[in-house]
Write the structure tokens for this entry.
Amino acid sequence: MIARANNLDVLAIAAHRDDIEQTCGGTLLKMAQRGYCTGILDLTQGEMGTRGTADERAREAAEAAKILRVSWRQALDIPDGRVENTWENRLKIARVIRERRPRVVILPYWEGRHPDHYTTSKLGYEACFVAGLAKLDVEQALSNQHSAFSGERSAFSSQHSAFSQDKTVDVSATIGANVSTGASAAVSTGVDGTVEGHGFSRADRTPEVAALAAGGLPAHRPFKIIYATLYYDIRPTFVVDITDQFETRFQSLVAYKSQFSDQEAGKDLFPAQADIHARTEAMARFYGMMGGVTYAEPFLQKEVGLVEDLLQIPVKSI
Amino acid sequence: MIARANNLDVLAIAAHRDDIEQTCGGTLLKMAQRGYCTGILDLTQGEMGTRGTADERAREAAEAAKILRVSWRQALDIPDGRVENTWENRLKIARVIRERRPRVVILPYWEGRHPDHYTTSKLGYEACFVAGLAKLDVEQALSNQHSAFSGERSAFSSQHSAFSQDKTVDVSATIGANVSTGASAAVSTGVDGTVEGHGFSRADRTPEVAALAAGGLPAHRPFKIIYATLYYDIRPTFVVDITDQFETRFQSLVAYKSQFSDQEAGKDLFPAQADIHARTEAMARFYGMMGGVTYAEPFLQKEVGLVEDLLQIPVKSI
Amino acid sequence: MIARANNLDVLAIAAHRDDIEQTCGGTLLKMAQRGYCTGILDLTQGEMGTRGTADERAREAAEAAKILRVSWRQALDIPDGRVENTWENRLKIARVIRERRPRVVILPYWEGRHPDHYTTSKLGYEACFVAGLAKLDVEQALSNQHSAFSGERSAFSSQHSAFSQDKTVDVSATIGANVSTGASAAVSTGVDGTVEGHGFSRADRTPEVAALAAGGLPAHRPFKIIYATLYYDIRPTFVVDITDQFETRFQSLVAYKSQFSDQEAGKDLFPAQADIHARTEAMARFYGMMGGVTYAEPFLQKEVGLVEDLLQIPVKSI
Amino acid sequence: MIARANNLDVLAIAAHRDDIEQTCGGTLLKMAQRGYCTGILDLTQGEMGTRGTADERAREAAEAAKILRVSWRQALDIPDGRVENTWENRLKIARVIRERRPRVVILPYWEGRHPDHYTTSKLGYEACFVAGLAKLDVEQALSNQHSAFSGERSAFSSQHSAFSQDKTVDVSATIGANVSTGASAAVSTGVDGTVEGHGFSRADRTPEVAALAAGGLPAHRPFKIIYATLYYDIRPTFVVDITDQFETRFQSLVAYKSQFSDQEAGKDLFPAQADIHARTEAMARFYGMMGGVTYAEPFLQKEVGLVEDLLQIPVKSI
Amino acid sequence: MIARANNLDVLAIAAHRDDIEQTCGGTLLKMAQRGYCTGILDLTQGEMGTRGTADERAREAAEAAKILRVSWRQALDIPDGRVENTWENRLKIARVIRERRPRVVILPYWEGRHPDHYTTSKLGYEACFVAGLAKLDVEQALSNQHSAFSGERSAFSSQHSAFSQDKTVDVSATIGANVSTGASAAVSTGVDGTVEGHGFSRADRTPEVAALAAGGLPAHRPFKIIYATLYYDIRPTFVVDITDQFETRFQSLVAYKSQFSDQEAGKDLFPAQADIHARTEAMARFYGMMGGVTYAEPFLQKEVGLVEDLLQIPVKSI
Amino acid sequence: MIARANNLDVLAIAAHRDDIEQTCGGTLLKMAQRGYCTGILDLTQGEMGTRGTADERAREAAEAAKILRVSWRQALDIPDGRVENTWENRLKIARVIRERRPRVVILPYWEGRHPDHYTTSKLGYEACFVAGLAKLDVEQALSNQHSAFSGERSAFSSQHSAFSQDKTVDVSATIGANVSTGASAAVSTGVDGTVEGHGFSRADRTPEVAALAAGGLPAHRPFKIIYATLYYDIRPTFVVDITDQFETRFQSLVAYKSQFSDQEAGKDLFPAQADIHARTEAMARFYGMMGGVTYAEPFLQKEVGLVEDLLQIPVKSI
């Protein structure tokens, strides 16, 4: 049984280290400042990057996590540049979801330039689904995958041997008692009879009640899945005001010194730090203007909203 | 100067008496139950209706307003079946907006079967705009219109002579001290520097500060304009849970006895009351299922949302 | 009372003479060949055309009508190049709809290059609506308009004096006993309780039962309004196979000799007849390929379809 | 050679037992009542369901099939919760399509909440395509798959051993001589030269003529593929009136007693039967109102329609 | 006859002084720098603005025009806050188009917050159409309007008397010999047989050949109409690189000292100049990033593009 | 190191031999006539075709290549009817892209009737991405794939043994010195700091600088990826005028004698050559009319355009 103290309120999933910092780092920081436990799951370890090694990037990711006050961060061993929506990858992510039991999952948007990004969107969604299948023993299913595909994996791993194990960044010690507070406890994740889409008879409706007999992790499905859209030019459903978090978010980005410092090597290829700041600010301000604030990050949800009080709807119409 | 006590928190504008009852009556009632002052502006008086006279419909509208706990209701003299987006009609509505100073205006959606409905949407929006033009004296502009068009109006009014004056339904006595409470007072309508769309230099940005020199009503622009979409099959931006208001809303609809009672005359043409209840319920339940509640009414807003707390976003994703 | 013999089954409304010939002439001919009574209402008389006079065009339109076996054709006096969605224009069209009582009305699509085309779409739709208002006396309303606007009209008519009267083309004698047959009689236009959109309480629901007291034409609303989309690049809802009508339709087009014959004047400006044939054929074949036939004309309807038998749905899927 | 008596007119394919009952059961029953042979292919056997065993669900599915007068029903052995668009799964479905040779295939819509649903849509479409490849021996291709993947399958099957064989429900005896009648015989599935999309040179155009040399099943491609959209909020292309079938369809749903009866176990998790009826009715009525009937089921087709007679187009426009 | 020296290559039309400076001023300056003659037509004179008088704004507009190297600028007398798509307004703009004969017209996008903006879009488009009607004498038609509406205008003008005449800003002396050069002469505006949309028989196809008999201005229709979309959040068709023009464009904006200087009056209401620079830059950078440049302005065209050389298409795909 | 002489300016990728001839053959010919080096990569060898053998089709493809003046053509060994977006297939295509280093890649559109077509679109896009990963050794990765999947492949290849090797068509001798000229040399493929989408920190940004240590092909990513849309009814971004290439393109299509000649076998199934010509012409003319030319081929790009000179934008607006 996973102790409540390990649970996350918000889990952001992305393909590469530094994706979260670019698309929703301000929002994660804001949620941490409100007392929520936040986490980041990077699917790959960045071994395809031109600059820096995977080890360097791991250290930088830990540093960025501290800056964003993230409680938990892990990198899976999915190959960089080859994120695929396979059963095995779904199981790997589902295991994390069952361990961390987030109420909100942030995924990248499902269209974009980089295949790893848009594939992560669909892969992450289906992993959330799989994580909620009460009768599925994720550990055993993963174990079956490993034996079945040992032939392929041994061959492929000759290129990826350095990344054969998931890397978890322990940031809890560093950032102190940032465990989930009453703020999140007050928000029940109950699945009490709400209709899920229009279908109402699928047995997977009730994932959380059934603990597996054989000691596996109990099923869990996040209440809310939202999509960070900053990498893609689509109108968001909502934005989050990060005016107070903007500069700290930028610091989390430049914590990736191997990528963003004004170093000699490759200086013709990477934009200088000043330029990155200008671009980052332009994007944040653009979405801020949409919501009537200075800086914001954009998100999309598939569901309609539910409004209790017309007088409380923000953003001026006219 | 208009006393604050006359101000409305929410004003719903529609073409015909009984439109509000069908599309957003539950939401109006819910807002009244939260302590807000609500109002209804019907643009026409129903003189084209097959059943009932305009006088009968006026009485029924007053009864429906009481049922929905609406503080204020008025019918303009725009011809039924001929709602047009003219300068004069915009001025007539703008005068009401300046008198009642609502923070939220509800309009019909801008597509649909009935021209009066979709024209009301555009007309109402532009009236909200005109109401905020600080240098415009609405009274004088209306007066200019009347003299200029006296030729046309006298000709046209031969058919519409019965409707030459706006009809205001005084429901305030009936429903008691339902004046705007602290709930609404706590919500400032300030226009403090928010960007309005992308343009930021139009002087009409600051409508509320300037009282007109010559004693006219001060300019006012609602903070929020939302569109009731129930008449049209479009995916709403959000729904409002009216599970607790549904049956009362239905009573407000059948208060239009001239239209909905199971009378002899025209009984082959009008659906029986039981059938109306079934259809009304199906619609409310359909939109309720979208939002994870039993009954709901659908709305659309043009703006993006602004979310402060990811953990508080309602409606289950998966 | 209008005799049934004058009723039309299908009425196509367009801005200019020769619009119908280009967009849905094949379909009109096909319907005539099935035994239906068809008609054309041209809103303008073509006085802005570079080639030919309005009188020439009137003769050509009559010739084209004969070729398409159209029972009835009329041109209103709306100014060419200035079709506007005014109350007066709606009344003029509504009068025709009440006189001819078509079950199906064909309008142009509501977007396009030519303002007269897209305005006709909206104007025609609202005229269909107005025609069904049982309490509206169209004749008297038109009379009111004329006296009210006499100032404007007399001024404007100095330019349009040649077109002060509607021109009706009597083609009935020519094409013989092409009156509406049992084919159309079998199709009831009843409005028995069907829901109109989502609104169900508007009294205009029952236009056809109420004859006006004062001798006016009884209200009528067409059962079906469809949009001919050939002028605009939008995916149609359905196409009509005109393989057998294609060449005759082309003959109806070149009946406009003042426009399409290979004359000397303006020969650098007008495509030669061979070129017109090639273009016409390309369009017809393009839409034909969509529907699995050789030549077709495209249409759009706003409503969803209603299918009785899955085995009878045409057009191969894969 | 497959005897005609085994052929189906309509085959509905879905991921889970009871999906068809929820989305298009009324339409299947209606087609059976018109004399057509209908069938259901469930891709999975429901082993991930919280309530009930796969065996129970098999019995319930047979009972539901009888209620809907379905002639043939089968469940494949694709794992519940893991429907994937693989070559092997396409072959499995293609084999069924070649055996049953349906003219119409119903698939779920390609977006939705449940990955099994939307994956079934794409998988089913591509299976229809594969089934029409004349030179492909589906049996041999499946056999190749089995030997190639034996490693994986043996590993995976440790969890799915109970479902190693497809389960066919023999409902033909129960429902009597419900073989395909002249009604379907009258509808030719010919592929005589129709253009398939815009491409016209692919040799797979002519699937049905070539019987395989080596005794395999002859190629077959359904004429029509339509998508049941009830699980997803999208505007349908057409609806099917199921007013007369609605209550029987509901009975087919509650035939899944393990899922829908008001049992003690899990009673907090499953909506009571009365609630299910209310929701089912709301959906059916909502789509019914779209088509001007009481109850309907919604469908989408990718192709444009093809209309022969404008006077016969159903659904009132205005 | 209008001398060629007065012709414009590009004419930007907007509702208010300073709209052009915000949405497409950089592009206009860039075109002037390439040697083209550019012009601005402001439909209103800004009498509704909170700050500044119409006279002040006229001087500021002239100053801004100089900064942008615009050859010609004029303000019509359409009332601020009441731009309407009337025949008279179309004629007023059409007269300008015939006088200046631009090859390219820039209009605002047809959706937005401000009714004057989106109405200008439609009004401007239809004015371009009217300007090309060879048989229309715009002067006479305007004269007819004036006499017909004298009643209305005299009444309305009591409020607008200060603006009874169009204001033309003579900037030609200031900016020297910025007449149209060979650059524009090389671009023929010929209408040689191109198909206009799908319709090919309208006589208005050939506007430019026919000079009016009675000395009126010859018809003219711009070759290209594009829409400046910066006020609205829609994906543009293309952007124009204004990296080298950005700061000068900003200077043209702050030339409106009555609006944008950091004055005492209204300082709580107007964003400070530094803030305006930040917002302006964010927008320009956002659209610049879309096109792979630093700063850009966004535009939309309705037509498809026509590409001669695949190797010359700009903007990196991946 | 690959010599520049082998480089292609444009590479068109399609699933089947004769796809290119149908969708973009005229454009390829036009580019060759401008002096560019063009190439075709067919992913399959057509073994599923009803008519003709793969060897016949190979000869025909070479003949068609000559007619279109294509410098290079190759067919991969991906199974016909089973194009899948696998890592292995991406690697196979990426190898070609690294060898031929095209600036422009043409892919099919991502929706359509034939799964091979739409899958090729996504597969080709992701292959372009993979080809640009500097740290990826494509040869070694392919080698790993082959050993890992040898079990599957040996099983599957029993059916596909005839196609175990890629078939390259040497057309360079035939068409002479059609090597890339200065025209293409003038177009740099530099990736100098342009922003790629909104993300700006991915190390894969700089693919071209890093040559692999171990002698593999250096990374390459095309500058531009465009989609040929002729197989699908979607509005193109732009069209290419092929009026001068149309008839030659048709000759390249009928070079596939096994498919398109008027042979006895299958004559009821294949459209006669005259019919193919008519359909081909209708499509080309339809898209030609969109762009104001006689014949054209349609394309779509995901990026916005970048315009330097408003006066040079083609295609008349009105």
About this structure: Residues 273-291 of chain B form the longest helix (19 residues). The CA atoms of residues 6 and 77 of chain B lie 22 Å apart. The two ends of chain B are 52 Å apart (CA to CA). Confidence is low (pLDDT under 50) at residues 150-164, 172-214 of chain B.
